[in-house]
Model the fold of this input.
Amino acid sequence: MSAPPAYTEPLNGAYRDWEDTPDYKYSFEKPEKPVPAPAYDDAFPIETPRYNDTFFTYTFIATILGLSYMTYSAYVFDPQLVTAAMSTSDMSKGMKALYTLIGVSTLTPLAFSAFLLGLVYLFPMAFVLLGFLLAPLTMFGMAITSLMAGAIFPALLSTAFGCFLLAFMFQNYSRFSFSALMLKLVIAAMAKYPSTFFISMLSSLITAAIAVGYMVSMALIVNARAAKDDTTCPHTNGGDVCVSNTTIAILLFVVFSGCYIFQVLQNTVHVTLAGVFSSWYFLDTYDENQKPRHPALGAMKRALTYCFGSICFGSLLVSIVQTIRISLQMLKSKLQNARHNRDSDNDFGSGDNGLLLCALICVVSVLEWIASEFEYWMQWFNRYAYSYLAMYGKPYLQSARDTFEILKYKGIDILINDSLISTAISLYSILAILVSAGVLALVFNANELLKEMGPEMLVIGGVGSLITCWFIVSSAINVLDVGCVTFMVGLAVDPDAFTRTNAAGASEANIRRLQFWEQMVRYYPGVRDRVTIDWPETTA
Done:
C-alpha cells in the first residue's frame, strides 16, 4: 500500500497561522518537566500529595453498595432463579439461554479484541483504513439486503450514504497517513513496554468478569421487579405487562450503575497506561537507572489512591449523561411504538394524538442528540485530563482545564483534530457489537433458545450484552488511544523530550524517535515552531 501524500494545511482559514501567538489569556498552571528517577513517584512528583475529590469516591462506593443491596433483595425475593442456574443436572432451557447469553457476550468480544491487537501490531495503516471502510461497506450491505427484499427507497438511501462516506475517506486520505504514523509510534512504545499489552488484555478479562456479575445482577432485579408488578397488574387485556414507576426508577439506576462501574474501570486503566506511556515519552532515552523500573505499578498506585476520586468524578459526569441518553432512547422507542399503534384503544395512541406524538418524538430526538454531544465532549475532555492526571495528580477540574488550555496554547489541538484513531476505535467497537449480535442470533436460533426467554429478559439481556461487548473491546484496544493522547500531552509539556539524545549518543530507539519526528514535521511543517514557543508570562 503506497503512502498517501504529505499533509498540507488548508488555505481556507480553518486553522490559525502557526506563527501567530493566539490572542487569548491563559490561566493554566505551568507544567513542570518530569525528572529522571528510578521510581515513578520521584520521576513524576506531586507537589502536595493528597487524595483529590474524595466525595466522588464515596459516591462510587455508595453506587456499588446500592446495586449490591438491590441484587440481594431480588435474590431473597426469588432464590429459585439462582438455585436453578446452579443446578447442572436439571437445568431449564431458560437457564441455558442465560448461560449462552453471558458466554457469547463475553467470549466473542474477547476473541475479537485479541484479533484487533494483532491486526494493529502487524498492519497499522490497514487498521485505520479498514476501520473507516467498515461504515460504507455496512451501508452497501444494507443496500443490497434492502434491494433483495424489494425495498427500493431504503436501498437507494443506503447507497447514497455509502457513497458519501467513501467520498469523505478520499477527501481526508492524508489524515490516514498521520493516524497510521501515530499508531506506529504507539506500537513502538508498546513493544518497549510489554506491560501495556498485559494491562490491556487483563482489563478486558476483568471487564468480562464484572460484566458477568452485572448481567446476573440485572437478571435477578428484572425478574424480581417483573414478578412484583405482575401481582398488581389488572390484566385487562389478558397477557398485558405492567411496569410500575418504581420499577422504571430501579432499572434506570441499574443502567446508571453499570455505566458508572465500567467508566471507572476503563478510566482507571487509562491512567495506568498513561503513566507507562509518559515514562516512555519523557524518560526512555535515559539510562536504565534514570527511568522508572515499574511504571505500570507506580501509575496504578497513583490511580487507585490520589487520583481515584478524580477518576470517579469524571466518570460520574459521563455516566449521568449516558443514562439520560439511554432513557431518552427508550422514551423515543415507546413514543414510536405508540405512533405505530395509533389505531389501538388507548387514548394516548388514538388517531387524534398523531400530531402530538410526532412533535414529542422530534423533541425527544433533539434532546437525545444534545445528550450524545455532551457525552462525546465529556469523554473527549476526560481522555486528555486523565493522561495529565497520571503525570501530575491534580484534581479533576484543574486537570481538565489545564490540559485543554495547554494543548490549545501549544497548537496541539490541530494534531488532535486530524487524528482518526479514536474514531476508528469506536467503529471497531460497533463492529464488535454487530459480530456479537450475529453470533448470538446464530447460537440462539440453532438451539431454539429465543422462545425460552421472556420478552423482558430478552430485551434487558440484549441491552446488557451490547453494553458488555462495547466495554470489553474498548478496554482492550483503548491502549492505542491512550498512547496517542499521552503523546499529545507530552508533546505540549516538553517537545524536546521526544528528540533528546542521551549522553552516550543516539541509540536505536532515539534514532527511531527522530525519524518519527521528521515524518510528523513533514505532515505539519509548522509544528516544530509552534510546540517550542515559550510559556506565557501570565499563568495561574
About this structure: The radius of gyration is 26 Å. The first helix runs from residue 40 to 43. The chain is about 75% helix and 0% strand. Confidence is low (pLDDT under 50) at residues 1-22, 345-350.
